[in-house]
Design a protein that fits this description.
Blueprint: E1 3-6, H1 16-25, E2 30-36, H2 48-57, E3 61-67, H3 75-81, E4 85-89, H4 96-105, E5 109-114, E6 132-136, H5 151-164, E7 170-174, H6 182-188, E8 192-195, H7 197-200, H8 205-213
Parallel strand pairs: 1-8, 2-3, 3-4, 4-5, 5-6, 6-7, 7-8
Keywords: Carbohydrate metabolism, Isomerase, Metal-binding
Family: Belongs to the ribulose-phosphate 3-epimerase family.
Cofactor: Co(2+); a divalent metal cation; Fe(2+); Mn(2+)
């Protein structure tokens, strides 16, 4: 069964406590939190204060995805805010190995994210150091976009690399995950499904999360 990580970016921020309660009662494994700075991506989302409040509202894993430039300046603050997993973008890190070591030294699990145009092969020399690879299946910045089909091939290639190296690195997919394509994504090798609009716009979010869990 995949790990299901609903993306709070698609939640109702006026009812954030209710949304957190719903996720706590659901089969969701993680809370996925997209932090955007308006520089690395053309949008601004939320930051440390929201994560601090959500930390108080759940015992589930806080999976924080930094779509920001210079993430090393804020890693410690996100740890203090309650992040369990901190994912930085390959494209935003000049010294990626240093970024990964910083995150691990702070006691968090470290992830690296790839934009749709970034090749899997670029992770060859860092894969053994990361706990998770997040493959963007839409262009980052906005929710509600359609899944990019080529992502499935990227997942297969990455899974082969992980197996060949004898690693246990998780593969997370973020963007355009629906009830219709979730099974194909899992079959390709994904371990973690991030779903925003699919969950929070559903008539019955609890049933939708359960269906994703059974993909």
């Amino acid at each position: 069964m995949p790990i299901v990580a609903p993306s709070l970016l698609a939640s109702n921020f006026l009812r954030l406590q209710d949304e957190a309660n719903m996720l706590n009662a659901s089969e969701a494994d993680w809370f996925h939190l997209d932090v955007m700075d308006g520089r690395f991506v053309p949008n601004i989302s939320f930051g440390l204060p929201i994560i601090q409040q959500l930390r108080k509202a759940t015992t589930k894993v806080l999976d924080v995805h930094l779509m920001i430039e210079e993430p090393e300046k804020y890693a410690e603050a996100f740890k203090q805010a309650g992040a369990d997993i901190l994912t930085v973008h390959y494209e935003a890190c000049t010294h990626l190995h240093r970024n990964i070591q910083q995150i691990k030294n702070l006691g968090m699990k470290a992830g690296v994210a790839l934009n749709p145009h970034t090749a899997i092969g670029l992770l060859e020399n860092i894969l053994q150091d990361v706990d998770m690879v997040l493959i963007m299946s839409v262009n980052p910045g906005f929710g509600g976009q359609h899944f990019i089909p080529q992502t499935l091939e990227k997942v297969r290639l990455l899974k082969q690399m992980i197996i060949q190296k004898g690693l246990s690195t998780l593969i997370e997919i973020d963007g355009g995950v629906t009830l219709e394509n979730a099974s194909a994504i899992v079959q390709a090798g994904a371990d973690v499904l991030v779903a925003g609009s699919t969950v929070f716009n559903a008539v019955n979010p609890l049933e939708t999360i359960a269906a994703l869990k059974n993909s």
